[in-house]
Amino acid sequence: MRIIAGSKRGVKLFSPKTDVSRPITDRVKESLFNVLYKYDLEGRVTADLFCGVGSLGLEALSRGAKFVSFVERDPRIIATLKENIEKAGFAGESKVIRANAFSIGAPGREQKYDLVFVDPPYAASRDIGEGSPLGKLLALLNEQLSPEGIVVVRTEKRVELLDKYGGLEVIDRRQWGTMTVTILQRGNK
After folding, report:
1. Three-state SS for 73?
2. How far apart are CA 154 and CA 24, in angstroms?
3. H helices present in the chain, as ranges
4. What is the pTM for the complete model shown?
5. Sign of the alpha-carbon torsion through 40, 46, 47, 52
6. Mean pLDDT across the stretch 108-130?
7. Which single residue of 23, 55, 74, 127 has CA 20 to 30 Å from 152?
8. Cα separation of 143 and 33, whole Å?
9. What domains can be seen in the chain, in order of their start residue?
10. DSSP bridge partners of 148
């Protein structure tokens, strides 16, 4: 696992010494960021929820994001996440928050987020109804997003999110291997 492109291209990331994380493969991450290219990451304020070792957020920073809030609740994984942030040289452009992202969403910024990655454990993303933990999180993120902000949700391939969660609407769906990536943006109110 490594940073694919940008200022820190080629930096190899540490993996946790546990099996509770499921890092995104380099090939899928590259495909995802090729899709996100049209949203111009330069100067964007980003959150990486259920971030694991921080692969998505670090990739965003390498490609020009201004700041990333990393949210993870497992202290064993947070130790590896902090090592990766230091190794990549992004300590000044990031903050690690130990919390359950389902409860707080993308926290701690006066400025709203332009890009939010949501990568919960697959078991926690199978219930996709509006009243589900994932549905409530997406409704909360609607309030934490900038007007043009987007949310990128990674789920198992067989999980298809609803077309709309509160003010967020699906604008793109992609499948790679065993996963689906859904991109949501604020709709017309």
Report:
1. coil
2. 10
3. 26-36, 55-62, 75-88, 101-104, 133-144
4. 0.94
5. positive
6. 88
7. 74
8. 24
9. 30-186 (3.40.50.150)
10. none
